[in-house]
Amino acid sequence: MSKPFDLLSDDDLSTCVHCGLCLDACPTFRVTGLETESPRGRLYLMTQWKRGTLAFEEEQVRHIDLCLGCRTCEAVCPSGVPYGRIIEAGRAEVERLRRPSPKRILSKVALRQLLAHPTRLRAAGAAARAAQALRLTSVVRSGRQLPKLRPQFHRPVGDVAAAIGPRKHRVAFLVGCVMPILYPQSHQAAVKLLQLAGCEVWFPPGERCCGALFAHNGDLDTAERLRDANTSTYLAGNFEALVVDSAGCGAHLKDFYPELEGKVKDITEWLAEIGLPEPKKEVKLRVTYQDACHLAHAQRIRKPPRDLIRSLPGVELIEMRHPEICCGAAGLYSTLEPQMSNRILQEKLDDLSATRADVVVSANPGCQMQLEAGLRSRGSKMTVEHITELLASAY
Ligand code: SF4
Ligand code: SF4
């Protein structure tokens, strides 16, 4: 079996010129002030490992574990260091060599046994919802708190939702693994918006988890297996765009699915491109927008969501300080690294409170969950919505 570091060329690693411009953008450097918790420090470590000039030591793994994979460093780097690819390979190499902790073994098994199996995942979601209804909350709360679960999102009969009005486009829609369970209302709103914009929406049958969480946690083998299965499912269909309303999944599909190149679109990117009809209602809200890292930094999409929010009559968009800095969610990070995640979250909550907004909007389920839990812990009245919910409320 090839080693994950073999996926990287020496050029990938040698592009870092050590300028340090990424340091202040890195959430873990911002809260620790340590070079070892900065992009430059991590790149140095991984470069030495790859070149064999530094022996692999368990203590050093901490610096890789504490990286959120938010890719803010990649977005600000003037030298074009492909940090996302480097950390993905670095994590896989670490998983190959380390002595895993019980927590990491458990999370790996849970990912493989649940996320990769939609039926099991839906059954677990139904059980968690029943536990919430019976107020057995301690059973379903671990690490990050689950949101209040609603009835799960289901595909329409025949796997197609018709356009409202004349059909102008045919798109595929990524249902994904956790979103239909944790945030069905975001999917429902997304589909409604697509229909209103004249899209016939196709839900590829047999689609599985896109594999993003596996790749981000160093399990490239499972990520590749899921990619190969999904690619044949998608390629059997006929569509203009594969629309995604989860930033983490969209970024992974764009980076990791070469056969879909150019077809994957974040919902905000797609709606800004094709246009929505005139809103029907005023939405009288003060809104602030949290850039999801995998939308802003991995996909470089920052303007379309803001343009869409501003297009709603009655909405006042208030920018928070540092909307582009991670909230500390980062997939499984808040469960695996709760202390660092919480330190980063506290800074975000201060910035959110300062806006005095009614609602904070984001485009990723992980950010929603993290912000909801943080705001709840502070007793804040600010609510959290997916951007599709806010947009759909104007129709
Ligand atoms: S990663 Fe980019 S921004 Fe950071 S030190 Fe290296 S060259 Fe500079
Ligand atoms: S991905 Fe995020 S946490 Fe990791 S080094 Fe880059 S900026 Fe820092």
What do you see in this structure?
With 395 residues, the chain is of the alpha/beta class. Helices cover 49% and strands 9% of the residues. The chain has 21 helices and 9 strands. It has helices at residues 10-14, 27-32, 39-51, 58-65, 72-76, 83-97, 102-115, 118-133, 137-140, 179-182, 184-196, 212-216, 220-235, 247-256, 267-274, 293-296, 303-310, 333-336, 338-355, 365-377, 387-392; strands spanning 160-161, 169-173, 199-202, 241-244, 264-266, 285-289, 315-317, 359-362, 383-386. The longest helix is centred in the last third of the chain and has 18 residues, at 338-355. Mean pLDDT is 92; it is low at 139-143. The structure holds iron/sulfur cluster (2 copies).
What is the CATH top level name of the domain at 285-392?
Alpha Beta
Lateral strand order in the biggest sheet: 1-3-2-4-5
Give the helix tally: 21
One letter per element, helices H and strands E, the order comes to HHHHHHHHHEEHHEHHEHEHEHHEHHEHEH
Helix content: 40-55%
What structural category do the secondary elements indicate? alpha/beta
Ligands bound here? Answer: iron/sulfur cluster
Could you tell me the mean pLDDT?
92
Please tell me the CATH architecture of the domain at 285-392 by its name: 3-Layer(aba) Sandwich
- Please name the CATH topology of the domain at 285-392: Rossmann fold
What is the C-alpha radius of gyration, as a whole number of Å?
Answer: 21 Å
